[in-house]
Amino acid sequence: MARLTIFFGIILILLGVLTYAGIPSKAPTSLIPAAFGILLALCGVLARTPDLKRRMVWMHVAVTLGFLGFAATIQRGLVTFIRMQQGVQYPRPLAVYESCAMCLLLLVYVVLCVQSFIAARRARA
Asked: Taking the model in full, what pTM does it have?
């Protein structure tokens, strides 16, 4: 799971940096996915330890960050994207796409982590 966390962290970093580079206004809010990505990647690196307790702590911190990022982007990302598909115009559509991508990436990450946690608990029992 630590590798998966690092992978999703890198994807989020790329999402934020590429969006920032692709917009003319250079709005710092476009780097929010990169900030979450850095935190996830850091948690993934710290979880790469033979100490089971330390690994569990860092993976739980990572999935909590992932869930908080997902919850924070549902309204601005997913709901706004659906409204855009229905014809509503927004002044910064790239920001909506970025938020939606972050929302969906973090949803997938959290689901994969929860499945892994359940499998690990069953394996210990």
From this structure: 0.90
CA distance 94 to 20: 10
Q: Which of 97, 27, 36 is nearest to 66 (CA)?
A: 36
Q: What DSSP line would sit under the chain, residue for residue? A: -HHHHHHHHHHHHHHHHHHHHH-TT--GGGGHHHHHHHHHHHHHHHH-SS-HHHHHHHHHHHHHHHHHHHHHHIIIIIIHHHHHHTT---S-HHHHHHHHHHHHHHHHHHHHHHHHHHHHHHHH-
For residues 24 and 52, give the distance between their C-alpha atoms in angstroms, rounded to a whole number. 46
- What digits encode the pLDDT tens for the residues 56-73? 999 999 999 999 999 999
Closest CA relative to residue 98, chosen from 31, 41, 38, 36: 31
Contact 77, 102 (CB under 8 A): yes
